[in-house]
């Protein structure tokens, strides 16, 4: 079995793909990430290297690139290719297919490299590690979740029943739950092997201040980063209703990690507790951790 390295939701023509790939790889080698990012945006390129292997039975096209262990915010934007473009999975380490494949999802105003402690620990166990690179500023949670669902559907199919672990921090937890809900509704979780979900400092009950974003004019979301995803973060949002209604099959085990010093997440909120109960989740409290430091605290 070959593990997915990067999944692209929208295919490019071979000529256009090759040209953009060459330019993107050149940009990635520039010493100034900011210059690379500006050029990448100007040319609308994404770092794709090799054309995909023929796989007509797969839901998404698979493109293989060199392992990419460190994906900071500038590199993530380069990988995604454009503002509000579909998210993709990038391999941070290729391992034994018999060992759980780990998928990592970061939160808002962040990047995959914030999950470096979890990435390193997962790679050390010998399995493949995939990072979800996505636009956490100008794309809605629903759209990000659809992108992740497409990637997960392919990973589940390729895993052939082998275990899968999904670790999500902060807003990433909401994206993961929406993605799994979408897969569940489409019957894509039938026949899946064991899936272990870790939701780390997750705002399962929403963030009260984010409800204001729902009342902003539609065009504002294209101008101000954070507005579009913010519309799905409020306790009164339609996204919150979806999350509270998520019920997952027995093959999925959920663990919720709570930071005892977290000023963003309120685990005592009614909506938070409702989601935990609906997921039949185990709750682990890390007393001394805050919203960010918990990533290191829970790393073995």
How many H/I helical runs? 10
CATH topology type: Rossmann fold
* Beta-strand share of residues: 15-25%
**Major beta sheet summary:** 7 strands, mixed
CATH class term: Alpha Beta
Order of helices and strands: EHHEHEEHEHEHEHHEHEH
- End-to-end CA span: 28 Å
Helix content: 25-40%
Order of neighbouring strands in the sheet with most strands = 3-5-4-6-7-8-9
How many domains? The number is: 1
Provide the structure class. alpha/beta
How many beta strands in the DSSP annotation?
Answer: 9
Summed over residues and divided by their number, the pLDDT gives a mean of 79
Can you tell me the overall shape?
A: globular
Please name the CATH architecture: 3-Layer(aba) Sandwich
Which stretches are low in confidence, meaning pLDDT under 50 for 5 or more residues running? Answer: 1-64
CATH superfamily: Alpha/Beta hydrolase fold, catalytic domain
Estimated radius of gyration: 18 Å
